[in-house]
Amino acid sequence: EESAVISLDEDEEEEEEEEERDEGPGRYLAALEAVQLELEAVEEEAARAFRRLRARFCLRRRPHLQRRNRLIQHIPGFWVTAFLNHPQLSAMISDRDEDALSYMTSLQVEEFGQSRPGCRIRFFFSVNPYFQNDVVAKEFVRGPSGHLVSHSTPIRWWQGQDPRTRPHKGPPAPRSFFAWFGDHSFPAGDRVAEIIKEELWPNPLQFYLLGEGAEGPPDSESGEDCVVILDDDEDVQEIPDDGDGDGVEEVPTEEPPNPPVGQKDPNR
Fold this sequence. Notes:
alpha/beta, Arylsulfatase, C-terminal domain, elongated, NAP-like_sf, NAP_family, TSYL2 protein
């Protein structure tokens, strides 16, 4: 009898093994798919919680960023120095760009709310002999197709000050940092925007101090978390473009203002 029981047990195990072989990996794939769906639900819940937490802390950072901006206003040439001390940005800045950026008074990076992914980078300028704008901005948003697109403020250059202008029969115009505002060829891979948002904006002081003999900038783990968050219900103005994608416009009819005392005239 014991022998018969053992034989029956072995037969049942063999039948189960045969059934598993017949099914192949199908049932394991189905189980794996079910587990993966559960994981995706957990990941989505974690992402929503993270976005809420980041928005809350960015609101807490806002008064500190405003105070930082007020302090920077009292340090002449702060932003142009910070840009020049960044190893990658400095390679894009010509001598004329450097003088134009010396009129820069503030930088702001705004990240839009959850319902409108994207960000806006704004440069603020005092009165200068290069262009009429007091604010020049570049904005990155998701287009109707879901792809990232960019728009920029048309720069209203004073006559003869557009750095892209090529003299008649002269050599090609040198590369200018300001050409970045009109470059909308690959918004998803815009390295300049990434550097400004992730490296320069979170801690501009570290780059400003590089010119005073400080060592290289420390690693920053909070770059993405330091941007200003705009609430979903906050009004966001669309940046006007001039239609040709260049983001520049030369103004021929008016004379540029005299530069403030202590800054050079670019026409001399």
